[in-house]
Amino acid sequence: MSNILENRTWRYATKKFDSTKRVSDEDLELLLEATRLSASSYGLQPYHIFVITDQETKEKLRPVSWGQSQITDASHIIVFANVTDFGEELMDGYLENVSSTRNIPTEGLQGYGDFMKSKLLELPLETKSIWASKQVYIAFSNMMQAAAELKIDTCPMEGFQAAAYNQILGLEEKDLNASVVLAVGYRSEEDETQHYAKVRKSKEELFTYI
Ligand SMILES: Cc1cc2nc3c(=O)[nH]c(=O)nc-3n(C[C@H](O)[C@H](O)[C@H](O)COP(=O)(O)O)c2cc1C
Q: pTM (2 decimals)?
């Protein structure tokens, strides 16, 4: 089997982590860098990512995560937060980054900037947040797949109260919203679900060739 399929078959949504095992700083760096390199619409990366190892914070998050043990037992809890509202500063910051990274004057980027602004700034507040949240999921998925390549286990998690996360992590005042969580660490040998067969739609159900 190719590595692509082997890694995707190996990974599963880990229910029980081995709380004694920690992801090394070196591997964490790789995961974060893979995530940083994620594609995003217009390149704007409208999100911020919190890396949580503090046990006290994990203990606070668990009851507002349907009591799921992954939150306290996994080595790292990664909270992907989308921006909820944004103005020109999001695009201007990006254009400045393009300008300095590629060493080109910002004036040459004005057309692209105006285009992005015309598409995004007039969106209703809720649509802005949904759009940003979609970008989050690309980064989130990238981290999950990168972890599988390193044989690091993860559990993707939507089973939590976003409002409580926002309050505990102080996200609201930063115009951020907890969108999705990735628990990262190593599976417990006792986690029976690692032996379950994958349940997926058949190719016929899933794909249409035109
Ligand atoms: C966005 C998202 C949210 C999820 N939320 C949870 C969760 O809160 N708790 C959990 O145990 N599993 C959660 N899952 C795991 C899914 O149930 C699991 O990925 C799916 O059943 C397929 O199984 P597999 O990932 O083990 O192959 C979530 C998965 C995704 C992609």
A: 0.97
